[in-house]
Amino acid sequence: MTSSDAPAPLDWTDVDKRAVDTIRALAMDAVEKSGNGHPGTAMSLAPAAYLLFQRLMRYDPADPDWVARDRFVLSAGHTSLTLYIQLFFAGLLDLEDLKHFRKWGSRTPGHPEHGHTAGVETTTGPLGQGLGNAVGMAMAARRERGLLDPDAPAGTSPFDHRIFTIVSDGDIEEGISHEVSSLAGHQKLGNLIALYDENKISIEDDTTIALSENVAERYEAYGWHVQTVEWKRTDEYVEDVQALYGAYEKAIAETDRPSLIVLRTIIAWPAPHAQNTGKAHGAALGGDEVAATKRILGFDPDKTFVVEDEVLDHVRKLRERGGQAHRDWTTTFSAWRTKNPERAQLLDRMRERRLPEGWTDRIPTFEAGKAVATRKASGAVISALAPVLPELWGGSADLAESNNSTPDGEPSFIPPEYATKEFAGDWYGRVLHFGIREHGMGAILNGIALHGGTRPYGATFLVFSDYMRPSVRLAALMQLPVIYVWTHDSIGLGEDGPTHQPIEHLAALRAIPGLDVVRPGDANETAAAWQFALSRPESPKGFALSRQNLPTFDRSEGSGFAPASEVGRGGYVLIDAPGDAVPDVILIATGSEVQMAVAARELLAEEGVAARVVSMPCVEWFDAQDQSYRDTVLPPTVRARVCVEAGIAQPWYRFAGDAGRIVSIEHFGASADYQTLFEEFGFTAGTVAQAARESLAAVRG
Amino acid sequence: MTSSDAPAPLDWTDVDKRAVDTIRALAMDAVEKSGNGHPGTAMSLAPAAYLLFQRLMRYDPADPDWVARDRFVLSAGHTSLTLYIQLFFAGLLDLEDLKHFRKWGSRTPGHPEHGHTAGVETTTGPLGQGLGNAVGMAMAARRERGLLDPDAPAGTSPFDHRIFTIVSDGDIEEGISHEVSSLAGHQKLGNLIALYDENKISIEDDTTIALSENVAERYEAYGWHVQTVEWKRTDEYVEDVQALYGAYEKAIAETDRPSLIVLRTIIAWPAPHAQNTGKAHGAALGGDEVAATKRILGFDPDKTFVVEDEVLDHVRKLRERGGQAHRDWTTTFSAWRTKNPERAQLLDRMRERRLPEGWTDRIPTFEAGKAVATRKASGAVISALAPVLPELWGGSADLAESNNSTPDGEPSFIPPEYATKEFAGDWYGRVLHFGIREHGMGAILNGIALHGGTRPYGATFLVFSDYMRPSVRLAALMQLPVIYVWTHDSIGLGEDGPTHQPIEHLAALRAIPGLDVVRPGDANETAAAWQFALSRPESPKGFALSRQNLPTFDRSEGSGFAPASEVGRGGYVLIDAPGDAVPDVILIATGSEVQMAVAARELLAEEGVAARVVSMPCVEWFDAQDQSYRDTVLPPTVRARVCVEAGIAQPWYRFAGDAGRIVSIEHFGASADYQTLFEEFGFTAGTVAQAARESLAAVRG
To answer: Which positions are annotated as binding substrate (chains A, B) (predicted)?
Structure first.
């Protein structure tokens, strides 16, 4: 079987129906035992989730990482039981796990957590993110196909597979759903099938209070294939599984557009009182209501967590079917391997996130003395690496030229009919055009990384990291190998003014646990930082890069300047006090302010003050060093210190210490040329030197 | 004239045409002189902006704050010249201002800045925000009408006015446009008219590379009234001003739905080479192209900043027309004042942002010893103040019950047909239902505050402040009187797990210049913080409130605890060392961790260690105190310190100092009951006491 075969006609027996009702009973029991959670949607979505896992998806529970599996993304993460119960049916979770729902240390936390529970493809809960991940996965699947098996006719490649997602009213309301759905339609992602569970209930109860758009028409405007399945009818509720299955069949057959199936459900059906209420959305139903519902479903109201043997045997057959599908697939896959030895090597390498031999040879070095913006250095690295790292791809949220994020000569990933005179298009291309959709970009990058194999990056101005912040947080939570190229990283942006000048962003991004924020001090630090970042795929990295030119330090032997390869240490002695004397004062700087520290060192030397300059491109990498290294760079005995960064001081107090001074900006910027701004806002060698004098005075008391 | 009268038929003379071409020449000259900027859209939008300011809007340049003026929001803030040149025509800016475009200290910064340039209704640039502001203004206009003149027939009230906005392709792409447009359709904002400048060019050039949705159909799906005006036709460009004017006439006549006019333009028309290019979007055209364009327009290519007398006389007549309209309006307004003396008092009070006599009498106090979540205390304050502060209104992004953001017994602001069994609806109601649209909520709150008069608040979980962060930043930049009610402010949220538990958010929000972040330590601090926040409308405030119950401290005389009114100091001695001894150590805490500091003080007392507890609900308010007060609370001589907050340590290093310790959480949370989480993650009286011992040891060296 290949993924593109039409599914077999639906054979729906009493055992299937009993299994679906078992889902409802388990969902009620799990929430009741936990005391909190979201039972209602898990009840009403029971048949849909069951259809997906038991009938529609290519899925082998024995290998949840099967490269060719269909992906399932539960964008409506609050109904985590919808997924957990299917994973239990698949044998990936035990009944005990369901009994420990939302408890400390359990495999069934309140929202699905990728990396924590096998079979969970992504962490969801913050609404809209999962839909964005699904769009990213669908794009990654196409890119993967293009890298590994571009010539196989549609539906014949072992890499063909689909992305299924379930979205809720809340996902539909969030702005990110607009960004990623518009882009999915534009990209003609025929491998993406979304089920919209339109139950019209959210926490404030009836969504009529806030939602009256026509969602089906909206998605048609995006170029999606849209179907509606009405289970809730004027005077009755008909859980027409055949109709839903038929809609899925059509969605699967539709390969030129993403598909949306609008499924009109009643939340918590058939609970007699709780159905169709906000309470059923987010709270336990209570013992009486659970009992009443169990009676309706033909379950013993006095028993909990009941899974009849016949049901369990039936649903666990998924393992046989999935195993058989996997074995059948292996034949096709092996034939592909034999025929494509080089591509097979690429696949193996990508799956292990291993970079090719000699890849670092390509990384450019920049001539000392030249003035180069770090964004430009970054662009040069991307272009240099593109030929040897086909897994590296990405693009910008409509700022490609400003972000220097486009590798030279590479085609865009775009249906060819949307190519423009600026950008050549290729269905399997490499350069991503997100449009002015930073948040969608963030969620899509996560989806690409989650899909596996390729390594994505995305670019915008640093100030607009705010627009994508919820997705960046999830990348950090999941520790995904995503790279952000954030340029125009300070008031150095200049004339566009305070709306475009990051002030608080370096602090705010460093605040996110698990995100490495990298602000290189010159072109060669930028190149070395790219190398270090790519070689460590275990977490997301965000580059903060200058718009304006920065001097490229002469790091040759005898120059006194350390090699840029020290960047991986996070912080290092860029140039020590003159004559390698014990420093009187340490000047710590990042990015475009490193040059000011270097110049201040000269000013201070004229006064007989011995100043060491520490470049600190990445606080997180520095923190990862052992104490002895850190004490070598920042000896605790040297208490006179100055930190300088064109952002707020908040992250620097711990390095400055009681006697230190921080040269920072604690207010918004202004519209003017950047030289004026640095001068007016006190970022000069002179202010750094003066701060050093003050710190020295404080130490001397 | 009232705002609802149909505009007079368009009388379009050669002088009008010349004035429009003058706009194009000025736009080119200003960008050329600046060396950078966005000329193209200012050129192609020249007739549209001219129509709005010179013909369609109720606008009196002599009084840019006229309460009944139509508002103009340039959501496409990059084309700031579109606005500046109209303000020049209106006499609010001089030609000199245009010559200093994007220069230090000028009134014409790169993007329009509210509060900096008279006549700029809002700060724009970050895309989508202006559209959200416009929706908020349209809602505020309705609420104002309801408060001041609810019974006047449509179109007869002196408070009837309209909100006009211009949006670009980029606004349309941003997710926030979806949130606010869906809500605007739902709210049937007939007083909102948006012009979508579909020029199909953005920074990556032809938007075809990233945008193919059918925008008109999308907006119809939102319930908007949509018209399309095609100036760009297959083989020619016809700047049909009459057609645009006719569309505006229809949009004005449409009072039941917001209106979108899709205007298909060619950017930078009629520049011979630059038109329809990405370069014309964001860069100076260059001398040759400017000269060529001026020749086409019939201007002397060797002259710059030319405004012929005839043109200037003609456009400055706007002042006479606006003044006459203002005087005519005053008749109606005075009649209203006479007839509505109490409402007139309310209007005066609202315009001055003055609160009524005795309003603080309503603020509840909470009984000592009771366990109360600060979110619940906040809800009690909102309910208590609602009757005396009609200007205070707001709501939640679908978390009303969790956020405790709904005042008792108040109707929802909603077309009555959308009322639900949970929420009574009133066209002029008070409770806002944003749906799951946090970002839209943020921009709408800004729009409400900008409109003037009323005082808005918006609520969601603290973790989802990330979703609205770009709007929060703009509230801080503009110093708007917006209040955020962010509840579930730590791992104390419990079972929903790491996706819902803020860790870095307090630090990240404190990082925003000009935003006051307030995390009260008990119910009475919450009430006092609301009082303080409302009495200071000069900046936005964000409350971080607990989900879980907190003890209410006994602050009675002799209790040793300071009164909650000290909250306004930002940080204060909650309870001093036993016997008012000189403290050995200071324990600084916020929110739900204050109780741990208080308990640790007891533990330490048993060991003979004298500990002072400082509650620090708002770092920004503490920083605003004079040095002597701050030194009283935190004597520099007492170097043993512990800071405790269930978030990252980053903001606390500066208070802890070299010898201090910080009890913090530097990683993401987990799904479990909150008691387990506080215990497992080290937030207990015991860990605070132990940190105090360590700090004391460090001081003793």
So the answer is: 38, 281, 375, 402, 488, 496, 500, 547
Provide the mean pLDDT of chain B.
96
Domain residue limits at B581: 569-700
Alpha helices per DSSP H over B352-425 = 374-385, 400-403
Is A463 in the same domain as A579?
Answer: no
* Cα distances (Å, whole numbers) of residue A334 to A159, A160, A337, B11: 12, 15, 5, 76
In angstroms, the CA B197 to CA B212 distance is 15
The verdict on residue A547 lying in a domain is yes
CA distance linking residue B254 with residue B190, whole number of Å: 6
Question: Over chain A, what is the mean pLDDT?
Answer: 96
Interface of A with B in 71-90 (CB under 8 A): 77
Flag residues of chain A having pLDDT under 70.
Answer: 1-8
A224 touches chain B (CB under 8 A): no
- Write down the pLDDT at residue B8: 65
Same domain, yes or no: B266 and B376? no
**A598/A612 Cα distance (integer angstroms):** 9
Domain assignment present for B559: no
Alpha-carbon span B613 to B648, nearest angstrom: 20
Residues of chain A with C-beta less than 8 angstroms from the C-beta of B207: 435
Residues A532, A414 within the same domain = yes
When scoring A34, A197, A213, A668 by the number of chain B Cβ atoms within 10 A, the one with the most, hence best to mutate, is A213
Could you tell me the pTM of the whole model? 0.98
Residue at a domain's end among B551, B580, B604: B551
Please give the residue of chain B at the shortest CA–CA distance from A276.
B421
Residue A616 lies inside a defined structural domain of this protein: yes
Q: Is A12 exposed, middle or buried (0-12, 13-18, 19+ CB in 10 A)?
A: middle
CA distances from A64 to A106, A128, B421 (A): 19, 24, 45
Whether A653 sits inside 8 A of B658 (CB atoms) is no
Q: Count structural domains, chain B.
A: 3
Q: How far apart are the first and last CA of chain B?
A: 79
Judged by CB atoms closer than 8 Å, whether chains meet at A214 and B221 is answered as yes
Report the pLDDT value the prediction gives residue A586, as an integer from 0 to 100: 98
**pLDDT, position B508:** 98
Binding residues of A for thiamine diphosphate: 78, 125-127, 170, 199, 281, 464
Check A438, A566, A593, A645 and give the catalytic one. Answer: A438
Cα dihedral B563, B567, B571, B577, rounded to 10, equals: 10
Q: How far is A543 from chain B (nearest CA, A)?
A: 18
- Whether A56 maps to a domain, the answer reads yes
Residues A463, A580 share a domain: no
The CATH number given to whatever domain includes residue B503 is 3.40.50.970
- For residue B280, the model assigns a pLDDT of 87
Among left, alpha and beta (phi > 0; psi -120 to 50; other), residue B452 is left
Question: Which CATH number does the domain housing residue B592 bear?
Answer: 3.40.50.920
Residue B167 and residue B272 share a domain: yes
- Per-residue model confidence (pLDDT) at position B3: 44
Query: Residues B164-201: pLDDT tens digits?
Result: 999 999 999 999 999 999 999 999 999 999 999 999 99
Asked if residue A598 and residue A547 are part of one domain, the reply reads: no
